[in-house]
């Protein structure tokens, strides 16, 4: 059976939720091989034993200092040694850079932002703001595919995959831009925007008051998003912006409060499974794509919904 | 020292326009085309880098530095180039050739890298992605092909022309990182780095006289077998418009909108 390598992404020694999703895709295609670039690889490897993983390969080196260029070289050497059927990487800023470089180094085709990969390596992408669905295949080299977080439910299982280490050599060209300091994102109590299964977003209609949006998000265990109008006004951090120039999210439930739904915003959330919108303006475009729309004041509707949800939980 | 700066720019369909596929690629003929929004931040940042290091505090002649735009696309991409020239860039190179139609990111990065090699640039700036393809891979691919330092997703840039160094603050979903490198550097900037200027009337008039050099594929020295749709490294099997979302429930809040909303969520097993 051919193997599928997937790159485990991790920050501060903790694997991302998306790593389990990649394992699930890899297992559906062939032998699921996790690749960990880290010095504390054992601690990271042990977090994979609840996902379908057949083998773990660890690569130690100065990855935190040299970032994507160095990881791409190491991964390319591993690909040359193992000749896998495909390589899967999470669609993050760094993940896509690693994929881009691996594709150049190994002479392989690349597909980014897949929302599905089937057993024959046919990918599904949702393009042009979710208005078009494209099916593609890589036709040359080892397919390098980046996959969006949250596009599949990770299979939960028990695995005890054997671990081997791989020695990579990093060229001087990959060491040209060292990282001198790093400040990780301060994680609040809320889930990460791109990984959350529920997102509650606020826009211009909040007038800068995100409290009702945050309260509903917390009642639902959701992440908080914001429209560009809200982030440009300084009401909410840019890192929470959903839309064409912000994050693309595809949660089970997307709640848009006080967001008109310009095409740029829809581009970032249109593939959400269920969309709920609250807007004072009965003509707001967001209401047309919502599965459930309330024409009303978010300052009345949201607190009532929040109280109701809390009451139901008892 | 005199800095030679290049900016990779792309003409894209207007992000407000409805985009469709035709024969496996984006139908570019039927929509308005504009300068990629995210490239404007790269143009603005290049201008600011030059202005900060210019005796006249202005870009252009007298600054001692040059800003060259590099683009690949059909001839009408010169419209997007004029926009960036009117912001203040000095000149431009447009690689235009029928054999390039349908090129993927690997071919595009190959062409851009070959053009960059022909110059003597210290810095190559890019936006983080184009608003049409949205792959966000070109800066990394160019850096890999040129074996230059990659400083990408910069939210802050400090250039020291005397020491020939660039330091950036890289801002991604994982947090912020400070990193630096010596020239030559491939630099991509995120949109919160600056507020791109509007071209002035003077800038628009001046742009009409600025030179745009057109290069054919032969001029780049690249074999036609390596570019275009037939050389693409991935193939689109099909592209279908997403089925329209069925009309959902729409009601007006009469004091119980929040309760109705929760009823809907419970019914859908979402709350």
3D structure, described in words:
- The complex is a heterodimer of chains A (about 325) and B (about 270).
- Chain A is of the alpha/beta class and about 325 residues long.
- In chain A, about 30% of the residues lie in helices and about 25% in strands.
- Chain A contains nine helices and 17 strands.
- In chain A, the strands form three sheets. Chain A has a nine-stranded mixed sheet with strand order 9-8-7-10-6-1-4-5-11.
- In chain A, helix 3 packs across helix 4 and helix 5 (about 210-220) runs parallel beside helix 9.
- Chain A is elongated, with a radius of gyration of 21 Å.
- The N and C termini of chain A lie far apart (about 50 Å).
- The model of chain A has no long low-confidence stretch (mean pLDDT about 95).
- Chain B is of the alpha/beta class.
- Chain B is about 25% helix and about 30% strand.
- Chain B has seven helices and 15 strands.
- Chain B has helices at about 35-50, 80-85, 105-120, 140-145, 200-205, 215-220, 255-265; strands at about 5-10, 10-15, 20, 25, 35, 65-70, 90-95, 125, 150-160, 165-170, 175-180, 185-190, 210-215, 235-240, 250.
- In chain B, strands 11-10-9-12-8-1-6-7-13 form a nine-stranded mixed sheet, sandwiched between helices. In chain B, strands 2-5 form a two-stranded antiparallel ribbon.
- In chain B, helix 3 packs across helix 4.
- The termini of chain B are far apart.
- The mean pLDDT of chain B is about 90.
- The interface between A and B is large, with 92 and 82 residues.
- Strand 9 (about 130-140) of chain A pairs antiparallel with strand 14 (about 235-240) of chain B.
């Amino acid at each position: 059976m051919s193997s599928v390598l997937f790159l485990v992404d991790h920050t501060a020694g903790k694997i991302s939720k998306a790593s389990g999703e990649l394992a699930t895709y890899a297992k559906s295609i062939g032998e699921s091989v996790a690749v960990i670039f880290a010095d504390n690889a054992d601690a990271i490897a042990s977090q994979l034993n609840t996902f379908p993983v057949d083998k773990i390969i660890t690569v130690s080196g100065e990855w935190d200092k040299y970032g994507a260029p160095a990881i791409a070289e190491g991964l390319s050497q591993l690909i040359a040694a193992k000749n896998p059927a495909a390589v899967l990487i999470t669609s993050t800023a760094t993940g896509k850079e690693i994929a881009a470089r691996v594709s150049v180094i190994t002479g392989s085709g690349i597909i980014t932002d897949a929302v599905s990969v089937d057993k024959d390596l046919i990918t599904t992408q949702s393009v042009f703001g979710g208005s078009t669905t494209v099916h593609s295949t890589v036709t040359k080299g080892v397919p390098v595919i980046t996959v969006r977080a949250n596009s599949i439910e990770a299979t939960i299982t028990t695995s005890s995959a054997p671990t081997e280490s791989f020695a990579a050599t990093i060229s001087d060209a990959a060491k040209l831009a060292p990282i001198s300091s790093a400040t990780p994102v301060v994680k609040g109590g809320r889930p990460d925007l791109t990984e959350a299964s529920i997102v509650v977003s606020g826009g211009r209609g909040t007038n800068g008051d995100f409290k009702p949006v945050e309260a509903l998000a917390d009642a639902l265990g959701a992440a908080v998003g914001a429209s560009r109008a809200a982030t440009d006004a300084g009401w909410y951090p840019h890192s929470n912006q959903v839309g064409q120039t912000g994050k693309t999210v595809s949660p089970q439930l997307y709640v848009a409060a006080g967001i008109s739904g310009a095409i740029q915003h829809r581009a970032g959330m249109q593939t959400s499974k269920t969309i709920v919108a609250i807007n004072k303006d009965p003509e707001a475009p967001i209401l047309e794509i919502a599965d459930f729309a309330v024409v009303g004041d978010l300052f009345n509707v949201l607190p009532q919904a929040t109280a109701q949800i809390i009451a139901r939980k008892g | 020292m005199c800095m030679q700066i290049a900016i990779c720019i792309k003409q894209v369909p207007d992000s407000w326009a409805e985009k469709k596929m035709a024969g496996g690629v984006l139908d570019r003929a039927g929509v308005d085309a504009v300068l990629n929004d995210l490239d404007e931040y790269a143009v603005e940042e290049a201008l600011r880098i030059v202005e900060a290091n210019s005796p006249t505090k202005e870009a252009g002649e007298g600054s001692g530095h040059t800003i060259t735009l590099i683009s690949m696309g059909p001839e009408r991409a010169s419209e997007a180039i004029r926009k960036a020239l009117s912001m203040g860039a000095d000149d431009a190179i447009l690689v235009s050739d029928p054999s390039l139609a349908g090129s993927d990111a690997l071919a595009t990065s190959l062409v851009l890298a070959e053009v960059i090699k022909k110059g003597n640039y210290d810095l190559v700036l890019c936006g983080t992605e184009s608003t049409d393809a949205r792959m966000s891979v070109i800066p990394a691919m160019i850096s890999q092909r040129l074996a230059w330092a990659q400083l990408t997703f910069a939210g802050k840039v400090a250039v020291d022309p005397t020491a020939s160094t660039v330091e950036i603050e890289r801002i991604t979903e994982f947090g912020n990182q400070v990193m630096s490198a010596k020239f030559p550097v491939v630099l991509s900037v995120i949109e919160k780095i600056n507020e791109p200027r509007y071209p002035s009337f003077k800038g628009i008039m001046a742009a009409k006289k600025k030179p745009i050099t057109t290069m054919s594929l032969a001029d780049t020295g690249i074999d036609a077998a390596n570019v275009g749709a037939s050389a693409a490294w991935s193939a689109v099997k099909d592209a279908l418009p997403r089925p329209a979302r069925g009309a959902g429930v729409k009601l007006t809040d009469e004091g119980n909108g929040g309760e109705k909303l929760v009823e809907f969520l419970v019914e859908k097993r979402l709350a």
